[in-house]
Amino acid sequence: MRAEEAPPPTEDRVRAALHDVIDPELGFNIIDLGLIYHVAIDGRIVDVRMTMTTPGCPAQGFIIHGVEQRLAREDGITGVFVDVVWDPPSSPRLMSPAAKAHFRIYEGNDA
């Protein structure tokens, strides 16, 4: 199906697709790690605002490429822009309960 024939993307579809993008250092998806801060959609163009686990993350290029490539495979998306921001910084508090359990982060040690 051509992109212009598919239904336009939704935030839920974009976030579901981004579960497939894995941080190679942590071996966990970027959604559950809390790295995706905002998804904006303008027609068939998707803007993703995200962070990395640390400034200077050596996997930054790999992760950005993963976001672009994964979303490019979604029907209805014709363009993807990724903006990496550092404010607010990444924190275990932003992780999903599944990620916290995986990394054994419990109440009180998630600063």
What features would you describe in this structure?
With 111 residues, the chain is of the alpha+beta class. The chain contains three helices and five strands, in the order H-E-E-E-E-H-E-H. The chain has helices spanning 11-18, 60-72, 97-102; strands spanning 22-23, 28-29, 36-42, 45-50, 79-84. The chain is elongated, with a radius of gyration of 15 Å. The model has no long low-confidence stretch (mean pLDDT 93).
Number of strands: 5
Provide the domain count: 1
Strand percentage: 15-25%
**Separation of termini?**
45 Å
Mean pLDDT: 93
The percentage helix is 10-25%
**Rounded radius of gyration (Å):** 15 Å
| Residue windows where pLDDT falls under 50 for at least 5 positions | none
Element string (H = helix, E = strand): HEEEEHEH
CATH topology: GMP Synthetase, Chain A, domain 3
Just name the CATH architecture: 2-Layer Sandwich
Overall structural class, as computed from helix and strand content, comes to alpha+beta
At the fourth level of CATH, the homologous superfamily is: Fe-S cluster assembly (FSCA)
Look at the structure and give the CATH class: Alpha Beta
Strand order of the largest sheet: 3-4-5
How can the largest sheet be summarized? 3 strands, mixed
